[in-house]
Amino acid sequence: MRADGPVTGQAAGTGLYVYAVVRAGTPLPGKSGGVGSPPAPLRTVAVGPVAAVVSAAPTQLRARRRDLLAHQELLTRLADSGPVLPMRFGMVAPDDDALRAQLTGAQAGHLAALDRVAGHIEMNVKALPAHGSLAALVAGDATVRRLREETRRRPGYEANVRLGAAVASALARRAGEAGRRALRDLAPMARATAAGPEVPGCALNVSFLVARADSDRFRATADRFAAAHRDHVELRLAGPLPCYSFVGAASTRPPAPVGGG
Question: What is the DSSP secondary-structure string of 35-52?
Fold first, then answer.
């Protein structure tokens, strides 16, 4: 069973909604919760040393804010009791037998992944252009400064387009350079890093596997970097998050050195 796609193409309202894979015996949260309105009771489907946390699938399963938040909140509460392999929203298995078969086939991989994320959380960092720092950009970029003066002397559509393109390019370049520096500063505090999908307008999207004991230090370092480089980059930090990005075999790699900028 994979954590980045549906277990099956099962229709909503039938089968089992799968939240996570945990070690067998991991206690469920005292206050039941999950997707659906009202949410169905939680239970586990266990095979040897691993178990899936499930509930009856809702009759109408859509990516609504209430259910998305309920899904993530449950994963966060589960992580308080031990390592969790989180499933993406919308994972549905047809029945207990099919789920047990999938757990059996992937048992070794699940155990290795649970060992890998034990005691860790995921922190995500996004670097975006600092659009509120135009004055600093003009002061520090000769090309933008020259085009702005040309636009003032000979205003017109083409001059404005050239200036706008130069500003956007310079903002993105400065954000990318600052993002790479942030990655160099933060990566030594993480067991592993994982590049996230491209986000429009985002120069960097990276997740870090961070020991729970180091999460405050990681956040403080990121906050200090953001404050010191606010003229170059808008740094957005999200976490602690379930370890979505570190449940596959590729996430065993250590943080790679980053060049440039």
Answer: STTTTPPPEEEEETTEEE
Q: Is residue 87 within 8 Å of 106, Cβ to Cβ?
A: no
Q: Kindly state the helix (H) or strand (E) to which residue 189 belongs, with its residue range.
A: none
Residue 125's SS3 state is strand
Domain boundaries, the chain: 16-118, 121-132+173-252
Q: Which two tokens stand for residue 134?
A: 């135009």
> Would you state the structure tokens that stand for residue 80, as one six-digit string?
């308080």
What backbone torsions phi and psi does residue 234 show, to the nearest 5 degrees? Answer: -100, 110
- DSSP 8-state symbol, 130: -
| Global model pTM greater than 0.85 | no
Angstrom CA distances, 21 to 18, 100, 162, 220, stand at 8, 12, 53, 31
Within 10 A of 206 (CB to CB), how many other CB atoms are there?
Answer: 22
Query: pLDDT tens digits, residue range 49-80?
Result: 999 999 998 887 788 888 888 898 999 889 88
Give the domain 121-132+173-252 fold.
Answer: Alpha-Beta Plaits (3.30.70)
Burial of 161 by CB count in 10 Å (0-12 exposed, 13-18 middle, 19+ buried)?
Answer: exposed
Please name every residue paired with 46 in a beta bridge, in sequence order, or none if there are none.
51
CB atoms within 10 A of CB 91: 25
**pLDDT tens-digit series, residues 77-105:** 898 888 999 998 888 999 999 999 999 99
* Residue type present at position 64: R
CB 2 within 8 A of CB 109: no
Residue with tokens 């993002």: 179
At residue 6, does pLDDT exceed 90?
no
Give residues with Cβ within 8 angstroms of 190, minimum separation 6: 123, 208, 209, 210, 218, 255
